[in-house]
Amino acid sequence: MNFLDPLFQLKAIIALAVISAISLKFKLLDRDGVLASIPIGYVIITFGSLEYFVILLIFFSVSGAATKLRVKKLGANFLEKDWIRTWKNVLANGLAPALILLAGIAQNPSKLVIAAGYFGAVGTAFADTLATEIGLLYPRDPRLITSFKKVEKGTPGAVSPYGYLGGLAASASMCGLACAFKIGDPKILVAVFLASLVGMTIDSILGATIQAKYKCGICGKLTEKSRHCGQPASKVSGVKIINTHVVNLISTMIGATISVFIFTTLSYQTL
């Protein structure tokens, strides 16, 4: 096992140190985000593979670049979200993939089942992130996924054609990465592509329904934050403990589950 190989452990530590330095240098993560990413990355490298870690790294890098481009075009204050990733972002998008690999060690399923779950989780996070960033560039008001009423950009659960194009691009990219790392089983590709899109859509539904939303008593703005304009805001809908990070975590787990379900169903039908 990699866990018992001293040379592999040294390589893992060096890789994590280099990536941490780069993340701080280019402000992809803040300090707490880097600290949170180290155990996540270690689990993925040790109990998965270096290739799995690279896949997650590509997701974070492309997502960070997309966020920076959006900030450059629209400004840092346009959307009330962290434009430098924090520990909450790391756990929301990285915890599910890490848990899948740990569960794989405990349950000992086939490598393709683990791959389906892993790619499904990362694909959901990737699709949702690019849908958000690219969707914000849509020139018109988006629509709430549950009612199709026009809402302000950045509203939890808002969707747009640009957003879904971003999600499609992310889902296709995950399939491309699967092929690049020689996990090109057609059943895996179908499962990951569909699960990423469904997971992204579920994220929007959860954002529109159970995610906590507040109204600022000072400016009257609807916000995801419990404090606004320096004062506590009043909750108007959703569940208090469910914020955007909790929604992301739930969605990645659902995306992983859907991917495994589709893959195993297709595998059973071809027997």
Report on this structure.
The protein has 271 residues and is mainly alpha-helical. The chain has one domain (2-211, 244-269). The protein has helices at residues 6-25, 31-47, 50-74, 87-107, 111-135, 161-180, 186-209, 244-269; strands at 143-144, 158-159, 213-215, 222-223, 227-228, 231-232, 234-237. A hairpin with a 6-residue loop joins strand 3 (213-215) and strand 4. The mean pLDDT is 90.
Distance between the termini: 31 Å
* Most strands sheet: 3 strands, antiparallel
Tally of individual domains: 1
Write the H/E string, N to C: HHHHHEEHHEEEEEH
Name the strands of the widest sheet in spatial order.
Answer: 4-3-7
- Count of helix runs: 8
Q: Please state roughly what percent of the residues sit in beta strands, choosing from under 5%, 5-15%, 15-25%, 25-35%, 35-45% or over 45%.
A: 5-15%
Report Rg.
19 Å
Coarse morphology = globular
Helix content range: 55-70%
